[in-house]
Fold this protein.
Amino acid sequence: MIQPHDDPRCEEALDWIEPYLDGDLPGEEAARLREHLGRCPACAAELQLAERIQRELRALPQLDCPPEVLERVERAGRGEVVAFRPRQRTSLRLTAAAALLALSVGGGALFLRLQRSSDQPSPEEVAQATAEAKLALAYLGRATRRASVDLQQEVLAKRLVVPATRGVVRSLGTERSDKGVLR
Amino acid sequence: MRKIVIAIAVTLPLLLAASAGRAQNLAAQPGYVPIEKLDLFPQDRLSVEINIEGALLNLIAAGARGSDPEFSSLLSGLKAINVQAFPLKGVDEGRLRTRIGNAVRWLEDRGWKSTLKVREGGEETYIYLKEADGRIAGLTLLSMTPGDEAVVLNIVGRIDPDQIGRLARHFDVDVNVKPAPAPPVKNDKKPE
């Protein structure tokens, strides 16, 4: 707590504290201030407080002033009229476009990946499909068996070897054989 | 803002095209037949419907490589197997014969070559093959057995006739030609 200043020289001492701390007070006056501070606890407390404030202010981070602000301040100081420059939006637009593009590609890739993983059949589905594929072939086998035809030897092989012959026979209108097989 | 719109306008169609591309691949196969578009059977009354394609076929082929190499080899060349079977009990078979006839014409109009036609005792069986680049690229079976069932089958992909003939005979014997039973329905209510 700061004590009351009873000494009439306190007012002069308080005016000297700031220049004293900054090293700007001449030597004779600085000596008189030191002598007064030795006798006046209230002014000594003021000095301590001023030292602390200065120390803490110096401890704050130093921020660089943007060059364009400095330039404007300097030009304003010279009495020039300084107009505000329009904000640069091109880079912002490009960044937004790039981000959207990346989002589209990334989202699309994720969509395709998810679609692919959802298409991935489970082992049970594979087993079921295996049985279905065999069933499909069984239908083919049964149909040819009922037609009394061997698919391998009587139908498909002949189809590959003599398709033209069959075409001739058909064109002559003799399609139906004795077994009812049209060839 | 215009750049953003352009970026999105370029990126989104590419992604959508990549997604849709897989579905279009099968339809572009020369041996593919959109059997649902042939309008043969009422879709809500099918007894069997099989649609296997793409990655699933590859997985089946990979899974069967050790136990059944020939089956695996056949499947590894295929792009799709699609089957629809329709029970014929209490059905107007005359109408169905007309539809099968239309389907046969549809195939022939699109370059499918008849390999087998059987009409005997009301039973009808047709096998058509589609060739591309000198190889069989597709097989379609249409069959109808009065009082039993009618079947349309389309196998898409590289088909070796010897191999598919052997396997068809093999599975005709070994596989029960009935649809898989429906999974049991859970019933938490205890009988009284």
